[in-house]
Amino acid sequence: MNYDVIVIGGGQAALGAAISAREEGARVALLTKGKAGFGGSSVISDGVQSAIFSEGDSPETFFDDILRGSRGLSNPALARILAEECTVRVNELESKFGIELERERKVATPGHSFPRRVYAANGLGKNTTKVLRQYAIEIGVEFFEQAVLVDLLKDGQAVIGVVVEKEGTVMAFTAPSTILATGGFGGLYASTDNPKDVSGEGIGLAWRHGAEIVDMEFVQFYPYRLQQPANIDVMTRIFGKGAILLNGSSERFMEDFPRRELETRDILSYEMFKQNEVYLDFSAVPVKDLEKDSPYVYRLVKKGYQGVWKMYPVQHYCMGGIKADEYGRTNIKGLYACGEVTGGLHGANRLGGGSLTEALVFGKRTGKMAALEGVPVPVAVKAEAERFGKDTLPGGKTLEVSQRLKEIMWNLVGIERTSSSLEKAEKELSELAFYLNKESGVAALQLHDKVRAAWAAAFAGAKRKESRGAHILQDVKVEKKEWEGSLVIQGDNITFTKEIHA
Asked: How far apart are CA 107 and CA 355, in angstroms?
């Protein structure tokens, strides 16, 4: 299984990178645990990209918005690339891939100075990824689906491929360049809108092999989520059409905020969290706007539901991840990364519409560079099941650890966090990782990588002694100038750097 470029993942970032590498002439293998184009966060998203099309808007204004939204922690080089290249990449969805686009004209998304939202194919993420999947197949990207990532293959300190498990068989794939596009770690939370396959193992795996990971303490919680009568997203457009949020006393608790219900997600999520109950009131939204702008809610209305509309924030996005440069290069030769598995672009908080746009912009750049660069691959490389040892994890232990992991992340590394809760989480997750590291077999190794991704989030959170963006400490509720920089984890070491502002 020898290729020029290997891509791990099945969402928009992975497909974008695979297409880009293939168009450079590389022989590309895309490996994913599910079905390419039908897994990961981008598939279940509202299909929102960001582009510049409003009169008076500019890349410079968008760049400023990104930095402001990130609370000063966004890597300026990455932010500028996103602001300058987003429009070309988003417009390609229409001009190159034939995906119908709808551009927001009136309502500016929270944190944006101008309307920039572009809805692809009726606001369904899968309608974009399905098209990218088909295009990738047509140009010759080779898919290996239902292939679960187990480990990296290395020659010295350089990555030369991956080991995956498919239908109980361990397989090796080699290439001069390997791209991780495995998504974030949201599936490790008890309450999340992420698919369960977004479980952080790409970050934990990279950490295990010495990759730097950055900004792991910043986890975004999404405020626009219904709990009752159904667990669904409420699209933000209706809050520009008259929808409001009320607490248990029927008070509009966002009334005194400049943008009210359209404040950035970190602010709104925390204000919602402080209420005992939060209810959605969309009685002022015209029916035709409700049908168009929040179809899931509209369907429930059409079915005759007349009860309360209860909302609560859920884990939504991970700003932190593998540290990568503007071409997806990590600190490990031969290893690249793009999409939500990376950190550095969004700093302490991501603006709405930034995730899928990032996947397009940096998927393209990473795939191209991976095709042009690479490391020498030895002639004879193979993966043997014996390398990982016999499975020693006791029956039922995987489920037990997974459930405990979710509880720790939601209760101790969630919206309401303190220095002590994060320290407690870091200690318990470190103990879990130590236990799993003593076991052998593929199952123990995969679970260990997930636990280590969670551990890094708690570790970084416990070290940052301030509240900034999505990281809000109950015991230190102020933002401190001296913490305007990033925490970088490598191995068991964590360092604070302000290099991003050079």
From this structure: 19
